């Protein structure tokens, strides 16, 4: 994985947390093998490793990392989210949507306008099942 942006919120996942004087050029920050990486508008990132595990880092002010800790602040290094196996993830500005390997759709994070699709406006700090139908892709 390579980075090329500011890391004040930890979106680079390398433990940093300052604005550099000059923009960062691409740098290798992980030798892990990822199958899907998604960056959000509020400095949050999520990724699925090739083994199906889900990881998140960066901003978590609305529970968008899904680690069960509401408004946890900032995760400067990748944090594994649960033990389930995933195949797809996408990140919105303050929420996350993902598909488990069984095809079920899950969402978490800010939900003030019903963006999670669970029929409520309740903020979720952990993945909540949205649909057990067979999903192949979703965009936050």
Helix/sheet category:
mainly beta
Head-to-tail CA distance between termini = 21 Å
Strand content: 35-45%
Q: Tell me the radius of gyration.
A: 14 Å
Number of domains: 1
Task: List how many beta strands DSSP finds.
Answer: 10
Question: For the largest beta sheet, what order do the strands appear in spatially?
Answer: 3-4-5-6
| Helix and strand pattern | EEEEEEEEEE
- Helical proportion? under 10%
Catalogue the unreliable spans: 1-10
Helix tally equals 0
Sheet having the most strands:
4 strands, antiparallel
Mean pLDDT: 83
* Overall geometry: globular
Question: What's the quick description here?
Answer:
The chain is mostly beta strands and 140 residues long.
What does this structure look like?
The structure is a single chain. This protein is an all-beta fold. The protein has one domain. Helix content is 0%, strand content 40%. The chain has no helices and 10 strands. The strands form 3 sheets. The protein has a 4-stranded antiparallel β-sheet with strand order 3-4-5-6, with no helix packed on it. A 4-stranded antiparallel β-sheet has the order 7-8-9-10, with no helix packed on it. Residues 1-10 have low confidence and may be disordered.
């Amino acid at each position: 994985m390579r980075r090329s942006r500011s890391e004040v919120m930890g979106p680079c996942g390398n433990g940093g947390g300052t604005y550099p004087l000059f923009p960062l050029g691409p740098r290798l920050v992980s030798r892990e093998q990822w199958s899907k990486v998604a960056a959000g508008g509020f400095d949050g990132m999520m990724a699925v490793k090739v083994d199906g595990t889900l990881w998140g880092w960066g901003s978590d002010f609305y529970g968008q990392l899904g680690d069960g800790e509401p408004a946890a602040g900032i995760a400067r290094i990748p944090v594994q989210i649960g033990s389930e196996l995933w195949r797809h993830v996408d990140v919105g500005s303050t929420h996350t949507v993902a598909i488990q390997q069984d095809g079920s759709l899950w969402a978490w994070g800010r939900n003030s306008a019903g963006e999670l699709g669970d029929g409520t406006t309740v903020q979720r700090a952990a993945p909540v099942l949205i649909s057990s139908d067979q999903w192949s892709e979703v965009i936050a």
